[in-house]
């Protein structure tokens, strides 16, 4: 099946990496399933719900070639969530998977990758298939069973062309823990 | 691929059905993925953990042809967990999927299906593929992500021949909620 | 301070006791704070919420003279929740505090003590002071902090005359786990 | 009963206040029960366990004169947990009670109040009676029922002279969420 380049996941732009010896890119990871996990360290829903779920995903798929990439997509309180604070956060929360700081935008508070993907806020996640296409993206934290099912299918198959969005939370501001871009 | 009859899931023996207009059997359900959920109504781990997980499975796979079958596998306190009590239990816990009473054994406390499958206690689950073979069985409650992954794979594929066992709990008696056959 | 006999907690009527060498009564327990815990073994909210809270109360007040008394107040599915089933339930759930079967009513489904206290359903609790007066009764499960505060105050003081009711759940039927008398 | 000045809670030293129109002190709060809640914004156990418990305490004792005071006792990663980051943290977590930044120490990483009280790490709490004496201090998060009981007793009585310590967690480093002074 020919790859539909229109559906290719846009490349990520990262200004600083943690937990990886060398910079990463989707290009480098092509051929593997990639779970992009967008968060902010001061986002309550990220800390309480999304990061623990990422841990469970790490454990459940430890024997596979799933690549989990954290993306610190700061869109508010920029001064409060600097890389120095992120480094301490990753240390205290014992986060071992690679985490990139989303490249700050030049004209506005939204960082580049976040804007490129049209993410609505944090936590968000994007599942990218072995062929580099976006399989699923979600704002908020989805049910573990559905998440497990979706990743397993992505690992088993060359990614079908599909693009759907699930909005778990219709919050505005940081109601209920997740943070929405104003 | 020729079906390996040696791996065929043994038929279930049920003395009384609830929540189904007609008796069920694995033979009737052949072609669908079947999740056999073995429980006892007085087993704490069944009530606190396994039944809520079954609800989440129902929800996550509502749009698929997954068949969930409860099996009341009483191996102790038989008089306390009669079908009359089971009927009230199903009503109070709003359980809507078909539930069968495992056929009482003639020589000993273990009911027939439970013995046939070699279940170690409750809660237990058996995942049966579209071709009628056992894909997985577990004693205790497994992680939601792993469960979601496994069911999704079973729904996507004709079942490969596989037989493995996961023992979540190594309890004896009803320690930690699950109940082990003495 | 003279005791206000109008506020005296009505005596409990029990047809069968478990976990106690001799029958109990409020008369016998006079001078101690008594927590009456009304439940049904097939009431989901009792099993999931109220009984675990009773365990935490037991632990927190283990060094005091608080008396915890379970009362099996069956008002529906009588045949399903017989003393035989209750005995197995207490065994499986490892309940060690004294539990009495509320005396069945002669004309109607409500047992005697439940009717005498005007309980609205299960789970319910009644806190009785050292002087035998009702300090508090609640339908549903209240917040642990408030419960801890209330019991501590009762243990510290001769009970003031007070009678209030908190309705945690306004369920009807067994919505949300608790069961309401029809 | 004469006040035992030896048991008086040492005064707190705060370099910056949030959520209060004017600086606070134990001297100013004398006559009220004070709950000092020591935390760090990057301490997992503070965020997951202690701060939610403080919210429940706020709710349960809303109608009393209990004073809850947060104390940001940073003893590691100082640069990562600056007042700018704390301000955003309080905003995102919707913390409304007064919070003071513990005065940085001059010789070493421990801030002044933390050292003065001999706190072992975060989260910690200190309960101070109406007469200004320390009633209880704890490292880690204690059971809600016990916490509710202890605060209710403090509110009801002039504080008895008592000084005890409960160590909920014997962690070292940030194991299990709480952070121990190295």
How would you describe what is shown here?
The structure is a homotetramer of 182-residue chains. Chain A starts with 13 loop residues before the first strand and ends with a strand. In chain A, strand 6 (124-128) and strand 7 form a beta hairpin. Chain A has a seven-stranded mixed beta sheet. Residues 159-172 of chain A have low confidence and may be disordered. The first copy, chain A, is α/β, with parallel strands linked by helices and 182 residues long. Helices cover 27% and strands 21% of the residues of chain A. Chain A has five helices and nine strands; from the N terminus they run βαβαβαβαβββαββ. The first copy, chain A, is globular, with a radius of gyration of 15 Å. Chain A has a single domain, classed as Glutaredoxin (3-Layer(aba) Sandwich). Chain A has helices spanning 26-29, 44-60, 83-92, 112-117, 144-156, and strands at 14-18, 34-39, 67-72, 99-102, 121-122, 124-128, 134-139, 165-167, 179-180. Chains in contact: A-B, A-D, B-C, C-D. The interface between C and D is medium-sized, with 17 and 17 residues.
């Amino acid at each position: 099946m020919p790859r539909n380049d229109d559906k290719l996941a846009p490349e990520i732009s990262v200004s600083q990496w943690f937990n990886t010896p060398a910079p990463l890119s989707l290009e480098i990871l092509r051929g593997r399933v990639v779970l992009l996990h967008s968060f902010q360290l001061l986002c309550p829903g990220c800390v309480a719900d999304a990061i623990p779920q990422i841990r469970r995903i790490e454990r459940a798929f430890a024997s596979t070639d799933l690549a989990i990439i954290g993306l610190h997509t700061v869109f508010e309180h920029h001064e409060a969530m600097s890389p120095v604070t992120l480094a301490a956060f990753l240390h205290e929360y014992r986060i071992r998977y690679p985490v990139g700081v989303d490249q700050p935008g030049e004209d506005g508070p939204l960082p580049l990758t976040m804007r490129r993907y049209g993410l609505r806020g944090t936590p968000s996640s994007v599942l990218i298939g072995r062929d580099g296409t976006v399989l699923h993206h979600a704002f908020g934290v989805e049910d573990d069973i559905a998440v497990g099912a979706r990743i397993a299918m992505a690992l088993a198959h060359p990614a079908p062309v599909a693009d759907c969005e699930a909005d778990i939370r219709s919050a505005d501001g940081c109601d209920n823990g997740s943070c929405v871009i104003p």
